[in-house]
Amino acid sequence: MRIESRLSYILGAKRLKMTEIARRTGIGKTTLLRLYHDRAEGIRFDVLARLCKALDCQPGDLLVYVPDDNQKGEGR
Which pTM was predicted? Predict the structure, then answer.
């Protein structure tokens, strides 16, 4: 199981560049790059809140849970 970042999808859908989001939020480009390429190992709530405000979205739009293939259907 893992949590995936959907930042690249949202930026593409809204036709926004990372430099614009960095300017709007004050979030460092390194942090944004890690989220954009789905390589972040964690995210602080304040960073998540600033992204949600700038992108007019909810945390569930930015992050999605992806179960392992062998976990699908467990407990049903």
Answer: 0.85
